[in-house]
Amino acid sequence: MELKYVSTRDANEVVSASQAILKGLANGGGLFVPTTIPKLDVSLEDLSKMSYQQTAYEVMKLFLTDFTESELKTCIERAYDSKFDTDEIAPLVYADGAYYLELFHGSTIAFKDMALSILPHLMITSARKNNVKNDIVILTATSGDTGKAALAGFAGVEGTRIIVFYPKDGVSPIQKQQMVTQLGDNTLVVGIDGNFDQAQTGVKQMFADKEMAAELDAKGFQFSSANSINIGRLVPQIVYYVYSYAKLVENEKIKPGDKINVVVPTGNFGNILAAFYAKNMGLPIAKLICASNENKVLYDFFSTGVYDKNRDFVLTNSPSMDILISSNLERLIYRIAGEDSVKNAELMRQLNETGKYEITPEMKAQLDEFYGNYTDEAETAKTIHDLYEKTGYVIDTHTAVAAGVYAKYKADTNDDTTTVIASTASPFKFARSVMSAIDSKYESMEDFALVDELSKVAGVEVPKAVEEIRDAEVRHKTICAVDEMPQVVRDFLV
Question: What's the CATH fold of domain 92-110+232-464?
Answer without folding.
Answer: Rossmann fold (3.40.50)
